[in-house]
Design brief:
The chain is α+β, with helices and mostly antiparallel strands. The protein is built from three helices and four strands; from the N terminus they run E-H-E-E-E-H-H. A hairpin with a 2-residue loop joins strand 3 and strand 4. Helix 1 packs parallel to helix 2. It is elongated. The N and C termini lie far apart (41 Å).
Length: 106
């Protein structure tokens, strides 16, 4: 899993990057499906925004969270990423390879 962290408009402190890395480690149970993650920190007025772009099974999942605290934004974005990756994994797992004719006969 390749992780790339970027900050727009300011230099992100190492503490913030380390916090994000530990939270991303929660996604390790989906590691075989996640190719890479790009995280972008930015500001919008008084809100702090994190954008996560995950590449999962040749699909791109974009997550944007905006709150007044960057750590809260990270937590919300990781929770959202876990839900979306799990849902994508379930779609792949439950997909049956039967032909349409076989489904109609059943």
């Amino acid at each position: 899993m390749n992780v790339q962290i970027t900050a727009r408009g300011y230099k992100a402190p190492e503490r913030l990057k380390a916090y994000l890395e530990t939270k991303i480690s929660r996604l390790n149970r989906f590691e075989e499906h996640i190719a890479d993650i790009k995280a972008v920190f930015s500001y919008e007025n008084l809100d702090q925004v994190i954008e996560l772009a995950l590449k999962v099974n040749n699909k791109k999942i974009l997550i944007t969270e905006k709150t007044d605290d960057v750590f809260k934004s990270i937590d919300m974005a990781i929770d959202n990423a876990e839900r979306q990756v799990a849902r994508t994994r379930e779609k792949i797992k439950t997909h049956d390879n039967k032909k349409i004719v076989e489904n109609l006969d059943a």
